């Protein structure tokens, strides 16, 4: 009879991206099963949002996927603006696209940097954070905030782009292109990185669809689904970019895909900078209503493509100043749920790199 060992990994562990626990059933060093326990970071954000005015809920969305705050804000705002039939000026929408893609780059730099750190690769981690810091400085100039930026608002953005911000973005993109290739090569020229990830964490397309995973995890299994293409919002239908996919289906394929998506984000930002028009950055109707607060009636659902995948927000109003119901569709929750499938039959050391390849942010799950 086989002898099994149960090993608890987490909830606080240096190589797990967030506060959660994995109960691993092992036969020697081979994983037989993984049970995931969440809820260690629970903050009840959705219910708290139902106690506040619509415009005051941005801070709670900033802190969901706290690495990708701009896209979290965008998911909530597009739902609320749909509920209130609030038009957003064209300039504000282009600005939103720029900061959303910049934040996607910043979040992805943390993700791949931490992924390397899980395997003891300290040098690329520092290089990723150096580049991320340049984006954070742009956010400080635009919003005053580094991570929980609170930059967007119902009807537009809180502050317009000035010439310095636009020049800083252009300068960053110019410098970042070759730096990104250097970071990529640090990983790809590492024999250890290949050994730890090639053929590890294979996710078949049918399994990915059954679990409802989205984002790089789904595209890494060969399915070209991206909300920006399949259900365009803002002006994503007015810029040219590709949706990369990988047929490797493993950790290595997902990593290569994520870097290519970063190249596509650079491409999107450059086009946005060329297309951004003059005009207002805020809907005056919303600005005047802020003092009286905004009312919403009915229901609305919006979805955007966050760093982790399809982020959906449902808002229901009952004609008052506060939402009656707020609910989030978390891509990170779907993605982390597939870990037992990816890990079964692998060695215990492989579990760490599998979790790292998914790059889950627990704040988005424990709402």
Estimate what percentage of residues fall within beta strands.
Answer: 5-15%
Shape: globular
Radius of gyration: 21 Å
Look at the structure and give the CATH class: Mainly Alpha
Largest beta sheet: what is the strand line-up? 1-2-3
CATH architecture descriptor: Orthogonal Bundle
> Could you spell the SSE succession in H and E letters?
EEEHHHHHEEHHHHHHHEEEHHH
The oligomeric status of these chains comes to single chain
Mean pLDDT metric = 94
Distance between the termini: 43 Å
Number of domains: 1
Q: Mind describing the biggest β-sheet?
A: 3 strands, antiparallel
- What percentage of residues falls in helices of 4 or more residues? 40-55%
Q: What ranges have pLDDT less than 50 throughout 5 or more consecutive residues?
A: none
CATH superfamily: Cytochrome-c3 Hydrogenase, chain B
Task: Count every helix, treating DSSP H or I runs of 4 or more residues as helices.
Answer: 15
The structural class is alpha+beta
Outline the structure in words.
With 367 residues, the chain is an alpha+beta fold. The chain has a single domain (5-364), classed as Cytochrome-c3 Hydrogenase, chain B (Orthogonal Bundle). Helix content is 49%, strand content 13%. The protein contains 15 helices and eight strands. The strands form three sheets. Strands 1-2-3 form a three-stranded antiparallel beta sheet. The chain has a three-stranded antiparallel beta sheet with strand order 6-7-8. β6 (297-305) and β7 (310-318) form a beta hairpin. α4 runs antiparallel to α11, α5 packs antiparallel against α6 (163-188) and α11 (251-275) runs parallel beside α15 (348-358). The relative contact order is 0.20. The mean pLDDT is 94.
């Amino acid at each position: 009879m086989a002898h099994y060992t149960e090993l608890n990994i987490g909830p606080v562990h240096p190589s797990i991206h967030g506060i959660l626990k994995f109960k691993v059933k092992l036969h020697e060093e081979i994983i037989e099963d993984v049970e995931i326990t969440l809820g260690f970071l629970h903050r009840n954000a959705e219910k708290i949002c139902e106690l506040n005015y619509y415009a005051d809920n941005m801070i709670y969305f900033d802190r969901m996927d706290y690495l990708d705050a701009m896209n979290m804000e965008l998911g909530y705002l597009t739902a609320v603006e749909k509920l209130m039939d609030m038009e957003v000026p064209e300039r504000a929408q282009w600005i939103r696209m720029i900061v959303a893609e910049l934040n996607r780059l910043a979040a992805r730099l943390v993700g791949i940097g931490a992924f390397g750190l899980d395997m003891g690769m300290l040098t690329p981690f520092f290089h990723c954070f150096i580049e991320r810091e340049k984006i954070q400085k742009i956010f400080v100039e635009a919003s005053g905030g580094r991570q929980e930026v609170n930059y967007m608002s119902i009807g537009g953005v809180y502050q317009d782009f000035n010439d310095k911000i636009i020049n800083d973005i252009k300068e960053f993109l110019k410098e970042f292109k070759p730096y990104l290739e250097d970071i990529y090569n640090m990983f790809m020229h590492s024999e250890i990185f290949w050994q730890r990830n090639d053929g590890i964490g294979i996710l078949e397309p049918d399994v990915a669809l059954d679990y409802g995973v989205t984002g790089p995890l789904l595209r890494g299994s060969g399915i070209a689904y991206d909300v920006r293409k399949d259900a365009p919002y803002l002006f994503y239908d007015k810029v040219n970019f590709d949706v990369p996919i990988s047929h490797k289906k493993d950790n290595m394929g997902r990593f290569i895909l994520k870097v290519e998506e970063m190249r596509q984000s650079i491409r999107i930002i450059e086009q946005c900078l060329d297309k951004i028009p003059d005009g207002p950055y805020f809907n005056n109707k919303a600005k005047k209503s802020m003092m009286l607060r905004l009312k919403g009636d009915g229901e609305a659902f919006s979805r955007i493509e966050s760093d982790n995948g399809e982020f959906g927000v449902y808002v229901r109003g009952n004609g008052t100043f506060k939402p009656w119901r707020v609910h989030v569709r978390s891509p990170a929750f779907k993605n982390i749920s597939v870990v037992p499938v990816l890990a079964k039959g692998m060695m215990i050391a492989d579990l760490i790199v599998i979790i790292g390849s998914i790059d889950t942010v627990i704040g988005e799950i424990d709402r």
